[in-house]
Each structure stands twice: as C-alpha cells, then as structure tokens.
Amino acid sequence: MNQYKKVAFYTLGCKLNFSETSTIARNFEDAGYSKVGFNDFPDIFVINTCSVTENADKKCRQLVKKARKINPESFIAIIGCYAQLKPEEIKAIQGVNIVLGANEKFDIVDHIESLESPSDEAIANYGKIKEVKEFVPSYSYGDRTRSFLKIQDGCDYFCTFCTIPLARGKSRNASIEKTVEEAEEIAATKIKEVVLTGVNIGDFGQGSDENFFELIKKLDKVDGIERFRISSIEPNLLSDEIIDFCLKNADKFVPHFHIPLQSGSDLLLEKMRRKYTSSLYTDRVQQIKRLAPNACIGVDVIVGFPGETDEEFMKTYNFLKDLDISYLHVFTYSERANTTANKMKDVVPVHVRKDRSKMLHILSDKKKRAFYESQLGENLTVLWESENHDGWMHGFTQNYVKVKRPYDAALENKMQDITLEQIDSDGIVSVKNVIEKATA
Fold this sequence. Notes:
CATH topology of the largest domain: pyruvate-formate lyase- activating enzyme
CATH architecture of the largest domain: Alpha-Beta Horseshoe
Number of domains: 3
Radius of gyration: 22 Å
C-alpha cells in the first residue's frame, strides 16, 4: 500500500496516549510518510483511542465519520485502549479499515504496508491482554513546548471501576538506564519541560531492585532539561522521600503534584478497591503544603459511583472543600463492561451524577481561583508556549499557574522570570514587571 504517503493522527485520552501517538508518528516518518493535519486530506488516518469513559467511545465513531468526509478514499486505522477492549465492535464501524491491539499498534506501519489494498471488510489484529508483556518506550515531540515521557505502562491494581488493566495489561517499565537515555534524547531537542507519564508511574520498578524514587533522582541530573513534572501518582505510592526530594533537594522537579483521590468516602474507597484511606490522602496533601505552601495539587475525583448516597457524596464534597488543593479533574462514573462495579447495586441515576458533577466543577473553579489569588505578587518562572492566541501567548509557572502576556515570537519556548499581576476575566493570570532575562 505504498500509494499512501500522507498520514494524520488524532489522539483521545491521556498524556500517555499522546506520547505513544508521537512515537508512532515518528515511525511513519522514518518509513517515508509525511505527517499532515487531520483536515489536510491525508491518505491515512490513525485514531488513538481511549476507553476511560463512554464519551471516548462515541468520539471515536465521530472521528471515523469525519475522516471519511475529509477523504472518502482514505485508509482508517484505530489503535489504543478502546481498540484492545472492543476490536470487533470497532471493526463493525463503517469506514474503519484496520483495528490494532495493544501489542500490534507499534508495528502499525508494517501492518498497513503488508496489505496490497484495502479490503471491503475491516481487519482486526489483536491478542489477549495477558500476552502483552513488552514495554515500548515513547515520548512526544514537536506537538507542543513540553514533552510527555512514558516511563511505565499497565496496572496491577484492578480498581472496580477501571478497564485500564484489561486494555494495557500488567505493570511494566524499562530500566532506569534506558529511561534516562530516553530523557537524554528529549534533551537533545529544544524541549525544556518533560512530564513523566504512565498508567501507574509510582509503581515503576516493581518486581525489581529499582523504583520510582531512584528514577527521579537520576532524571534530575539530565543536562538540557530545565523542568520535570510528575503527571499523576497514587497517594499510597507518593512517599515522604519522593515529596522531600521534589520539594527540597531536586534541581528540576517542580512543586506540582496530581494525586488521584476518586472519593472522600472511606466506604466508597473500599468499594472502589483503592489502596488508601481519606486520612492517608490528607496526610500526603499536608506533607506537601508543609514543605511548599505554594505547591499546586490537582485531584482526580469520580462522582456517581454505585452506592454513593447523598451522604457519601457530601463526605467527598466537604472533604475536598476543606482540603488545601488547587483544582479538580471531575469524572462522572459510567458503566464499563467487564468491571466489578458494573455488577454493583445501588446505581446512582444519571441525572444525579450530572448534578453532583456540576457541584464539583464549581468547587474546582473556586479552588483554582483561590490558589491563583494566593499567588498574586509572587515572582515565578514561566515557560512560554508557541501558540499565538489572538495576540496573546500563554505559559505555565513551575507551580502550574497559567499565565499570559502579549504575544512575542522571541519568547516562544523560553523560560522567563515574571511577577503575577492580576487574574483576568478569562481566569488566566496576566504578568507585570517581566524581568527581561529569558533563557534560550
């Protein structure tokens, strides 16, 4: 199928998916293909799917339909978590040509080029998830100012609401040495910030004599990267030594933690099969804030899990309201096939789930506003991004405050010391007293 030379990508879901899409795109380019935009009449569309929520499944179908409209003669490939979980279901979507599972997606170029021509019936190549044992290193490059570095894949936890172990397999990773080599490859580019990503990154090294703490100490010494950011880490794996290192001893790890909570109710945490209690979570937040009052803390929370009565929901709401956190990522529970929670009783009506989600979104807005207000007048460092947003450029401080200033092409991908001035009507902080010292 060498008549196909232009390929476009669309990524649904998490930072981990973005890192893998970028690696797969480089594989296409190495094979002589040109990467183009989704709307630029590509010959091949590669859609990397998520299946954390029902909406992600619907989005996949919408993208296939959109791709077919853009180029009716195109070849459409579906990869990612949804592709591993429901390959036959995707295969039946009109317009899909090939579906590749978790083991097969990194060989997508070979799979496509082995076909003489598209057949009328879609092809699905996938194996059982227990057969997925190899760790394939990945990192994103070229799409944005920061890079997402995949340091771990899979999960052994089997929380009752989650399909990820079924879609990605057992927890696995490369060695510290190999992971540092990947970071050094990123350092050889112009990228200044690396976000460590995976399914359960705190589990790095399990089953070996290596661990996440040893990894971050080695990464902190990589020349050429100015910032490392931890994308998400389970509270039971966020040890005192990790917190202390990041906030007191590290040169490059920033004061920003994203810590999944899911519920402030210990009853629901047990039903979810989480590995901690609300009191341990509180302890982790307090430990961070003791060492770094300006640290940013993000929280994942699920609303509408089976058995979440009004009383249990309010436990979560009040727990979060009283906690010194900076923002929430709110997920409305949706039933997923082959999960334990899908068989539980006391199902929460959908309209109640939506109402609770709205309450937590409002709380998140208040928390974020309060955190931003607490940072006004602070002297911080921003990494400016490359996009021009109607004459403005945006960036994030080390503690994840989103800031803006009038666009200046000379500052793209530059680190700059700034003072936070005021929160504008769009909820983004404008800066003043810009210290005209920008690092190349």
